[in-house]
Amino acid sequence: MRDGTDEIIKTKLYAEIETLEKLYRVIKVYLAGKEDDSLEIIGTFRGFRDTLNKISTHILTLYAVEGQKTKITWDSLLTNIDHALETLQASARSKPRPAIQLALNISEPKIEEVMSYLLTLKESLQ
After folding, report:
1. Are 77 and 114 in contact (CB under 8 A)?
2. Using H for helix, E for strand and C for coil, what is the string for 42-108?
3. Which pLDDT score, from 0 to 100, does residue 39 have?
4. Per-10-residue mean pLDDT for the chain, 126 residues long?
5. For residue 116, what is the DSSP state?
6. CA atoms of 66 and 100, how far apart (whole Å)
7. What is the pLDDT at residue 113?
8. H-helix or E-strand spanning residue 2
9. pTM of the model
10. Containing H/E element for 21?
11. pLDDT given for residue 1 in this prediction
């Protein structure tokens, strides 16, 4: 676009993907068995969800600005993360790992596939 809107969106999208990468690394290490403060990991998981929502919005906006249509394919992942967070909030569980693992395991596409797509997208934004 002539007014630079697409460049602004791309810059924001790039920054959000970097943030998501950092949150994903923390979640991955936690799921691999590292003990962490339950409230911190729930906050990280919530941050991952919020950032992925922002990325979805940026992608949809970018495609709209460029006059193209697209569909976000990771709605299942976002929905399952929401359910896991609701479950964790409603219960007095001190160990959130099982709820997080279940949310990620039943999602299609898998979190790894979403991250792979976003990392490829990030490279194309440079």
Report:
1. yes
2. HHHHHHHHHHHHHHHHHHHHHHHHCCCCCCCCCHHHHHHHHHHHHHHHHCCCCCCHHHHHHHHHCCC
3. 82
4. 77 96 94 84 93 94 86 91 85 76 91 94 90
5. H
6. 36
7. 94
8. none
9. 0.88
10. helix 5-31
11. 47
